[in-house]
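@channel sequence for tomorrow's demo:
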Amino acid sequence: MRSRFAPSPTGEAHPGTLLAALLVWLDARKAGGAALLRLEDLDTTRVKAAWSEQMLDALAWLGLDWDETIVQSGRKAAHEAALDQLAAAGRLYPCTCSRADRAGGRRAPDGGWAYENTCRDKPLPAGGWRAVDDNLRAHLDDSRVELVDDGGLDVSQTPAHDMGDPILRRRDGVIAYQLAVVVDDAAAGITHVVRGRDIAPSTATQVMLQRLLGVPTPHYRHHFLLLEHSKGEKLAKLHGSIPFGELRARHAGDELCGLLAHAADLVDEARPCTPRELVATFDWARVRNDDLVATFDRERGLVVQRQS
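C-alpha cells (generated this afternoon):
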C-alpha cells in the first residue's frame, strides 16, 4: 500500500488540512504501508514558498512523518512527457473558451459550469501543443466511468459530458491539477488515494485520464469535511478562516490531534494524544460520514460541531 497527502500551499495550513493529513497517515500506517507527502505547488499565481515551509512545520507539529516528500514543481519533465503522449494519440486540442463563456450553461457535479467541448474540432498548430497560447484540453472518450469508492460513495460519471473535457495546461503555461495528479500518482506508485469529499467530482475525469495514459487506477476514498459559515451564513469548505498560526498559539500539537480525532469519532473524548497512539484502533468503520462545522474561539480554541 502506498498513499499520499497532497496539499496545495496556497495559504496557511488550517484544521481541514490537518484533518485530511491525519486520516491519510493513519490509513497508511494501520495497513503497514507508505505515506507520502506531495506539495502541489504548480500554481505560481497562488502558492508561496513560505506556505510550503509552514505546511511541513504544521504536519511535523501535529506528529506526522512521511516516507517521502515530493515537490510537484520539480516534475515538469514528467508532465510534459504525458502531454507528448496524449498529443501523439490525437487527444489534445486548444481551447479559446473562457469561464465567462460557460457561465449560465449547464451545471457540473462540482457545482461549476460544465464545459460543452466547444473547441474539440480545433487541431493543434504546426508547432504542436507547445505552440498553443490558449488553454490545452484533453479529448476524453464519451463513455461512462462506473466507480464506487472504498467508503461506498458512488463517483460514477460520464466525465466528458458531466464535467466536460478537462484543461491539462492553462493559457499561462501552468500544468493543470487533473493532469498533474494523475501523472504524479502513477509515478509514485500510489495504490490508495484518501481525500476530502469535495474532490469526488474529479475522480471520474482522473480515471479517464489514467486510461488514456495507460496507468493504473488506485483505490479511492473520500472523507467528510470541516465546513465554515461564509459571509452569507452558508456553509462552505473550511479554508483560511482558522489559520495555523492561531491554532498553534492556542493548542499544543497533541491537543489538536485529540480534537481532530474526536471530531472524526476515532476517540470517545477530546483528550491530548499523538497520531501514533491512534494507529492501533484506527478503523474507517468508526470515522463519521457527515460534515462538521468548525469555528475558532479565542478562549476555547478550535470548536467542532454538527451542522445546525
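heads up for whoever presents: The chain has a mean pLDDT of 94.
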